[in-house]
């Protein structure tokens, strides 16, 4: 009951005209960047970080949340209409969604995606209201050893479990950790990896790194591939932008199953929405195979409904994990964690005590954002698709200028512009060589927390490092991490065996 009362107070703050404007702005920006292939919510939040210094924290985070949710809506729109998902989390939705569009049901496919995202996000938001305070109370029992274990869990899970190549994932993680330790050591006061340059004594700003890697690196990559990129035709939706009763009854079980699958992944740092969307799609495909007349492969509405609900339910719970535990499960959440620190706030139990107005207004804004996004996407999906008519040179040139202006406005240093260019080139190389970006961002955000927690734990135990694995919470976290790794390795081994068996079958068929 206390949570409901606090949520009502949050709605009173969120429903002011100023905050409603920021909800709308965030949803519009998130949907817009989601529609554009190659862009995404992580890039949008990174670009907005420098320009939100002057905003009140509540307004800034309401806008960031709208961008986070809106990005998923936009991603699925392009996956359905062009078979070109904006982000990896929308890949599973394209399998059946694009086939629905090819069959003349593009409008119904967009409606299925929009309602599915609404259902998943709305249910997850309800769970966050009741679970986030409990998680925050639970995290109040965390000490330095527990926070170090949580950071290690996030490091290993995001760098080795999610990525196809664990070596590349770990390499990206260590790049992020290496950038995080540059500057003056807070404990000893000694400069570390500064090359005796006074410009690096304060370290490298996370804002500079995120803008360089996510935005400028992507711009350079797109510029290099521009000649090889083929523009695909957009399927124009025709007919009713809503579902019939039969279609709604067909999709509803898949929406609910997808939501159930996606919710747990909002608390586990396993890369965000990618894994649950594929799991939801796979479950619906197995269930469909039991039917007398399987529909998958021809535009099955359940194959689109489940991944959409799973993706947004994961995102909704991810916001709860971020607020209650300070645990980012994706690159976008990691940047939002950096934004909290930018305002002098630390997510966790102290956030609920020191800034309850911010927390509950933000939670209330989740529900408002879901409704706004449903209104924006059900009837106006085709209008968003027209953003693809913007010439790429103008679009990416504008992003480059925005990157430079944002960084210079926050620091006033020419040196930071050179850093932006240099790290942007590193981001381009990572993109070109298929190195994941999320481990780098999470390594840089959680690296200082891991280092401080390790020192504090060792000092409190007089140098006895066994304290890191002595508590029940730390043992549970390391045990869960081991379990996740075992399942990940098993999945890859099974996948390779199936691939080899398929190759052998193809060779036999060719030989025959």
TrEMBL record:
The chain crosses the membrane at residues 20-39, 46-69, 109-135, 147-163, 169-187, 199-223, 317-340, 360-382, 394-410, 417-445, 465-489. Residues 20-442 form the DUF112 domain. InterPro entries: DUF112_TM (IPR002823). The keyword Glycosyltransferase does not apply. Keywords: Membrane, Transmembrane, Transmembrane helix. PANTHER family: TRICARBOXYLIC TRANSPORT PROTEIN (PTHR35342). This is Tripartite tricarboxylate transporter permease TctA. It comes from Leucobacter alluvii.
């Amino acid at each position: 009951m206390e949570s409901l009362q606090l949520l009502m107070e949050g709605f009173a703050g969120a429903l002011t005209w100023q905050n409603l404007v920021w909800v709308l702005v965030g949803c519009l920006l998130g949907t817009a960047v989601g529609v554009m292939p190659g862009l995404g919510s992580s890039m949008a939040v990174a670009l907005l970080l420098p320009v939100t210094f002057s905003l009140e924290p509540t307004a800034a985070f309401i806008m960031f949340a709208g961008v986070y949710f809106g990005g998923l809506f936009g991603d699925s729109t392009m996956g359905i209409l062009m078979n070109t998902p904006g982000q990896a989390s929308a890949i599973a939705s394209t399998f059946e969604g694009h086939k629905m569009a090819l069959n003349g049901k593009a409008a119904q496919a967009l409606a299925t995606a929009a309602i599915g995202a609404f259902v998943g996000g709305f249910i997850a938001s309800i769970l966050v209201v009741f679970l986030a305070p409990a998680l925050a109370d639970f995290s109040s029992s965390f000490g330095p050893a527990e926070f170090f274990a949580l950071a290690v869990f996030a490091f290993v899970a995001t760098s080795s479990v999610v990525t196809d190549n664990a070596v590349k994932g770990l390499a990206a993680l260590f790049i992020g950790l290496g950038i995080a330790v540059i500057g003056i050591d807070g404990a000893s006061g000694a400069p570390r990896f500064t090359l005796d340059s006074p410009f690096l004594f304060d370290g490298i700003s996370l804002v500079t790194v995120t803008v360089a890697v996510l935005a400028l690196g992507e711009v350079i990559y797109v510029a290099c591939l521009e000649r090889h990129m083929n523009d695909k035709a957009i399927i124009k939706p025709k007919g009713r932008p809503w579902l019939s009763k039969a279609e709604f009854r067909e999709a509803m079980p898949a929406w609910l199953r997808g939501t159930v699958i996606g919710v747990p992944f909002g608390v586990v740092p396993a890369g965000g929405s990618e894994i649950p969307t594929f799991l939801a799609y796979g479950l619906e495909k197995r269930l469909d195979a039991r039917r007398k007349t399987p529909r998958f492969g021809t535009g099955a509405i359940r194959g689109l409904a489940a991944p959409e609900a799973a993706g947004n339910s994961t995102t909704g719970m991810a916001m709860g994990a971020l607020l209650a535990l300070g645990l980012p499960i994706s690159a976008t959440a990691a940047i939002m964690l950096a934004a909290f620190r930018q305002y002098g706030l630390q997510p966790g139990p102290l956030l609920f005590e020191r800034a309850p107005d911010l927390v509950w207004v933000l939670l209330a804004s989740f529900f408002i954002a879901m409704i706004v996004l449903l209104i924006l996407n059900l009837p106006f999906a085709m209008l968003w698709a027209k953003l693809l008519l913007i010439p790429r040179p103008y679009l990416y040139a504008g992003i480059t200028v925005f990157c430079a202006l944002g960084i210079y406005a926050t620091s006033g240093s020419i040196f930071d512009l050179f850093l932006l260019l240099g790290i942007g080139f590193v981001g381009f190389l990572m993109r070109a060589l298929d190195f994941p970006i999320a481990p780098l961002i999470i390594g840089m955000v959680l690296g200082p927390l891991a280092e401080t927690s390790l020192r504090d734990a060792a000092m409190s135990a007089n140098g006895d490092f066994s304290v890191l694995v002595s508590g029940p919470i730390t043992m549970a976290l390391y045990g869960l991490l081991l379990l996740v790794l075992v399942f990940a390795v098993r999945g890859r081994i099974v996948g390779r065996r199936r691939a080899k068996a398929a190759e052998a079958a193809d060779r036999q068929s060719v030989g025959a």
